[in-house]
Amino acid sequence: MGRITLNNVGKSFGAVEVIPPLDLTIEDGEFVVFVGPSGCGKSTLLRLIAGLEDVSGGQIRIDGADATGLPPARRGLAMVFQSYALYPHMSVRKNIAFPLRMAGMDKAEQDRRVAEAARVLNLTDYLDRRPGQLSGGQRQRVAIGRAIVREPAAFLFDEPLSNLDAALRVGMRLEISELHERLKTTMVYVTHDQVEAMTMADKIVVLNAGRIEQVGSPLDLYRRPRNVFVAGFIGSPRMNLITGPEAARHGAHTIGIRPEHIRVSDDETCIWKGEVGVSEHLGSDTYFHIHMAGRDEPLTVRAGGDVDLYHGDTICLKPDEAHIHRFDEKGHRIE
Amino acid sequence: MATKASRAAARLMISPAVLLLLGWMIVPLSLTVYFSFLRYNLLMPGDNPFVGWENYQWFVTDTSFTAAMVNTLLLVGGVLLITVLGGILFALLLDQPMWGQGVIRIMVIAPFFVMPTVSGLVWKNMFMNPVNGIFGHIAQGLGMAPIDFFSQVPLLSIIGIVSWQWLPFATLILLTALQSLDQEQLEAAEMDGASWPARFWFIMLPHLARAITVVILIQTIFLLSVFAEILVTTNGGPGTATTNLTYLIYVSSLLQYDVGMGSAGGVIAIILANIVAIFLMRMIGKNLDA
Ligand SMILES: Nc1ncnc2c1ncn2[C@@H]1O[C@H](COP(=O)(O)OP(=O)(O)O)[C@@H](O)[C@H]1O
Ligand SMILES: [Mg+2]
């Protein structure tokens, strides 16, 4: 079990309101990702749920019971920190067993659970090493091991992969997703990386300056961003946002169109015209940065890997009208 | 800088400094060793015959030697115990966020800058004096007989004074160490269900182990040679109750004018200090590796 509800939860540090009061429900067994730019209050929100910070107002319920005033240990949640926060003077075995030892569990049961966690996480051969003798990925797994042995109601992850190199990050992402499939325990995962959010989440919570901009499944957010912020944040490369006469023509203040919804064409039905700038060849796809008259920022366009266009070429662009997102002056979506 | 030629050049360059240091150390040391084998008393002029181990024999079999050894151990051990425990306590307190933190920290450090003679005299006259001292006044105010510290509990009084001087040092080192502890580790332990005592025992104390070793090593070296505090308060008395090894050497060479005997004591002190140093180096080496 692990259903977490936040009612009107807010947090201020002194006079600075980092998180204005917000409501959020995290269902049992869900993989929820908090995503947003650095400094938007993701960690703070996670720490409020964990109990490492006191709320300035509102109520936190875990499985229906009020947990607002409970100390972290009694909330039944386990947390994995960005710095791993392993205990450097203890062996891997002792690190993983630490929460069990603190709970006063008997030695045989401790050993059994540690062995099981080590098997799942491929750490069996490293149980007697110190954290300092492990690689980044292994340390990360020890931190996860320390969390799973407790069999918590929910896992909290605070940017667990940001200290790893790119290749390892992809691997660990899969491992964490697999772990979620197997355990079916609620997971709350904080990241500033929208790729992590898109690939791992059942439900994404987009945060901006402490406010929730949108909550929904990854494809929901991708297909129907509720405002300009979400539109620009979710998706890589970013959605092209266009203001001015072209937007007005569509009856909006801002229109957005994703790189894959613009076609490069050489026929005469030219809707937008531009000059090719930098191109990024990925093999399967090519991203062109197109400079258009009257726009400072280049437009990003996705084309197949075999489109031959070169720096300085003038080309025609054809946006897919069905996939144009329209936003009003306040940045809200117009249906 | 790792070729053979460059290493040879490096050795050549630093050799004058090394030789100077070596001479600086070797000359007084050999003179001390040399004198320790002579019958050399300033009250009995004349030739100074070579007497072999006689000085050592006399020094070691003297009853005040045993007393001095025991006192030295009690003094060093007592002060270490008080300063390490007290230092941990103060460091934990000073690590808490509080109003006027900077000023409080400076005040805690202050005793370290008071000269040993001065602090000895201040404690002797203003605190521990049974008639004029604050402790005496307090005792009288409570209707008890004032304690005459330097005659009733002389060694304990000296331990108290020296601890007061060294507590700031221990506090400072331990506080710095405590502040370098990763806060996320403490938070992780909190999430893992560790109570405050458990966090202290399993997380903070192991983190402080290295700093504690450093405190013990440095303090031991200085505490073996405590002298001024004894000189200005008890003069090693009553009897030999507060005579430590350093003070005993002072008594035999300067009060009894026996240079030979004093030198013998000095050599013994050097050997003892080196034994302690080797022992501590081993300990600290092990701790620093981990
Ligand atoms: N203990 C604190 N005291 C004061 N301000 C804080 C504290 N912790 C975080 N903040 C502020 O709250 C904001 C959100 O921080 P954080 O939750 O760490 O952001 P994120 O994890 O999204 O990058 C930041 O502007 C940060 O400066
Ligand atoms: Mg953060």
From TrEMBL, chain A:
Residues 4-234 form the ABC transporter domain. Keywords: ATP-binding, Nucleotide-binding, Transport. GO terms for molecular function: ABC-type maltose transporter activity; ATP binding; ATP hydrolysis activity. It comes from the Bacteria. PANTHER family: MALTODEXTRIN IMPORT ATP-BINDING PROTEIN MSMX, MALTOSE_MALTODEXTRIN IMPORT ATP-BINDING PROTEIN MALK. Belongs to the ABC transporter superfamily. This is Sorbitol ABC transporter ATP-binding protein /mannitol ABC transporter ATP-binding protein. It comes from Rhodovulum euryhalinum.
TrEMBL record, chain B:
CDD domains: TM_PBP2. Residues 69-280 form the ABC transmembrane type-1 domain. Gene3D superfamilies: MetI-like. It holds the Pfam family BPD_transp_1. Keywords: Cell membrane, Membrane, Transmembrane, Transmembrane helix, Transport. It is a multi-pass membrane protein. GO terms for biological process: transmembrane transport. The chain crosses the membrane at residues 12-37, 73-94, 106-123, 155-178, 208-228, 259-281. It comes from Rhodovulum euryhalinum. This is Sorbitol ABC transporter membrane protein /mannitol ABC transporter membrane protein. GO terms for cellular component: plasma membrane. It comes from the Bacteria. InterPro entries: ABC_transporter_permease (IPR051393), MetI-like (IPR000515), MetI-like_sf (IPR035906). It is found in: Cell membrane. Belongs to the binding-protein-dependent transport system permease family.
